[in-house]
Write a structure and sequence with these properties.
- The complex is a heterodimer of chains A (273) and B (298).
- With 273 residues, chain A is mainly α.
- Chain A has helices spanning 8-31, 48-55, 57-90, 97-109, 112-125, 132-155, 160-168, 173-202, 205-210, 218-226, 232-272.
- Chain A has 2 domains: 18-55, no CATH class; 57-233, MetI-like (MetI-like fold, Orthogonal Bundle).
- Helix content of chain A is 78%, strand content 0%.
- In chain A, helix 1 packs across helix 11, helix 3 (57-90) packs antiparallel against helix 8 (173-202) and helix 7 runs antiparallel to helix 8.
- Helix content of chain B is 76%, strand content 1%.
- Chain B contains 14 helices and 2 strands, in the order H-E-E-H-H-H-H-H-H-H-H-H-H-H-H-H.
- The chains are: A mainly alpha (273), B mainly alpha (298).
């Protein structure tokens, strides 16, 4: 769409829209520095809730479980999701391809309560004790599908003949994948990993179904705390989590913007020569 | 096909078969079983030691009793209907809030667009639970919204918003807004601005040009965005249980309570199967829309 006139109407929609998106989080952050335990009354600046949070063993344990589950499941999901994407895009026809693609897309639209229930009943049926392992298995299963979608969209846009050239020049298929395909799809693999990691850190419903008594994740902990109402410690915890995500997303997007700028410069240099 | 290629297909395939398809088979099977006071709390259990007669008697004990039960107890169809209603209303509300934002983004100067895009995506990376929780402090009786409305003198007594369906609508619109904005923005950004000029040259007013040109061209984005909001909203659990009240009945919450509070696994499984059946139609419509889009682009 051409730029045209940027009317007052558009400016108002943007301002109101972004106020709606960001004000609730901003309020949450401001009130995490509130002296009072009453979260609706401002009683002066204080960082005491952060101090209390850091002394709360239960939260720290839950954070550790969440991190472990997140790292394991996102790494496994990235490997499996990349394999699945490669199989779907490069392998042509094989028996059961339809079922395979259905199983990749279904978890994306499946309500979490159903996925959680199904996995729990499965773990009980095979007699696997619920804990960190079962949560990680559950998270791997749904996030590998997200990774596969992200990697697929990158694989379909890049030129297959590059791989074929490497094979013609005597590369083994594995070498061709490692030295040609992987570097090209790497940005998608990395963003797939980040997506899987965030999904895992975020998940309440599936983790509630598949966790055992000794393995509580941070979202489960937060959920049971906020069910009773708003609490300043949770505000402090939320602020820390929002801070980490903001820094992460902004620096990732700055890095990718700089990389694409450098890429453009290189192309221009090459053209001049 | 050599062994290595087979391996590449086999590993993710087997993973999904075991951890996705088989669990659903188990849900289906348990939904046909009966509740029992046992561990696990359902019957019959398959006994392989009896051979064929065991398997035959096992299958003869499966029935649709739980599904009949779901039609008899009004709680369940009320829950299905009210989930459909809440998902529909919030999808329309999200569209009304999201369309002007997407439109303004597409009209904004091109050097601003990457930043605006990032501002829309950023909340998506932030914890869903935290974004829902943020509204609890705002919407409560003595919350900031009521304090603000009292202060400007718009209301005389605080409104009850938290723990009603209103809070659920606000929560769904808020958390799913990026899913609505992004596809509409993508459709509007591709649009050729000279079409609008042509319409205006041919005597259309700006408003009728908008309805006759912009809206039809953004239709695929609107459809995609609406399904991306409607499908997850239908099975939503976190928003109704944190922001909704005891009168907010949504099927995701019912399933959760059936399983965790009542420990009725067969009924919970039957609820899950019906929810899945309800979802098949919007999912198929969504996929048809996506396929049509891809064909048009080629």
């Amino acid at each position: 769409m051409n730029q045209g006139r940027f009317s007052w109407f558009n400016a108002t929609s943007l301002t109101l829209g972004f106020a709606f998106l960001y004000l609730p989080m901003l309020i949450l952050i401001i009130y995490s520095f509130n002296e009072s335990r009453l979260v609706t009354v401002w009683a002066g600046f204080s960082t005491k809730w952060y101090g209390e949070l850091l002394q709360n063993e239960a939260f720290l344990d839950a954070a550790w479980v969440t991190l472990k589950v997140g790292l394991w499941s996102s790494t496994l999901a990235t490997i499996l999701g990349t394999m699945a994407a490669y199989a779907m895009v490069r392998m042509g026809r094989f028996t059961g391809r339809g079922l395979f693609s259905g199983m990749i897309y279904a978890p994306l639209v499946m309500p979490e309560v159903i996925t959680g229930l199904a996995l729990l009943l499965f773990f009980i049926a095979i007699g696997l004790d619920r804990g960190v392992v079962t949560i990680a298995l559950a998270h791997t299963t749904f996030s590998m599908c997200y990774v596969s979608v992200v990697v697929t969209s990158r694989l379909v846009t890049f030129d297959k003949s590059l791989e074929e050239a490497a094979l013609d020049l005597g590369c083994t298929p594995f070498d061709a994948f490692r030295s040609v395909t992987l570097p090209i799809i790497m940005p998608a693999v990395v963003s797939g990993w980040l997506l899987a990691f965030t999904l895992s850190l975020d998940d309440l419903v599936i983790a509630s179904f598949t966790s055992g008594p000794s393995s509580t994740t941070l979202p489960i902990k937060i959920f049971s705390a906020v069910r009773l109402g708003v609490s300043p410690e949770i505000n402090a915890l939320s602020t820390i989590m929002i801070g980490i995500v903001t820094v992460g997303v902004i620096s990732a997007s700055l890095l990718s913007r700089r990389r694409s700028l450098r890429h453009k410069e290189d192309e221009q240099k090459a053209l001049r020569q | 096909m050599d062994l290595r290629r087979k391996f590449l297909i086999f590993v993710p395939y087997a993973w999904l078969l075991v951890l996705f398809l088989i669990p659903f088979g188990i849900v289906l099977k348990i939904s046909l079983s009966d509740t029992a006071l046992a561990i696990p709390p359902y019957t019959p259990k398959l006994d392989w030691s009896d051979g064929w007669s065991g398997i035959i008697s096992y299958f003869s004990q499966l029935d649709f009793e739980n599904y009949v039960f779901l039609t008899e107890d009004s709680l369940y169809y009320v829950a299905y209907l009210s989930s459909l209603k809440i998902a529909t209303i919030s999808t329309i509300a999200t569209l009304i809030v999201g369309y002007p934002i997407a439109y303004a983004m597409a009209k904004s100067p091109s050097h601003l667009r990457p930043t605006l895009m990032m501002l829309v995506i950023l909340p998506f990376w932030t914890s869903f639970l935290i974004r829902v929780y943020a509204w609890m402090g705002i919407l409560s009786q003595e919350g900031l919204l009521n304090q603000f409305l009292l202060w400007i003198g718009l209301i005389a007594t605080p409104l009850t918003i938290l723990n009603t369906n209103w809070a659920v609508y606000i929560g769904i619109v808020y958390t799913y807004l990026p899913f609505m904005i992004l596809p509409i923005y993508a459709a509007l950004e591709k649009m050729d601005g000279s079409l609008m000029e042509a319409a205006e040259d041919l005597g259309c007013s700006a408003i009728s040009a908008f309805w006759l040109v912009t809206v039809p061209l953004s239709k695929p984005g609107v459809i995609a965005g609406s399904f991306l909001v409607f499908i997850p909203a239908l099975g939503e659990f976190v928003i109704p249980s944190l922001l909704g009240g005891s009168k907010t009945i949504m099927i995701g919450k019912v399933l959760w309570e059936e399983f965790f509070s009542n420990r009725d696994w067969p009924v919970a499984s039957a609820v899950a199967v019906i929810l899945l059946v309800l979802l098949i139609i919007p999912i198929m419509l969504f996929q048809r829309n996506e396929r049509k889009q891809r064909e048009m682009e080629q």
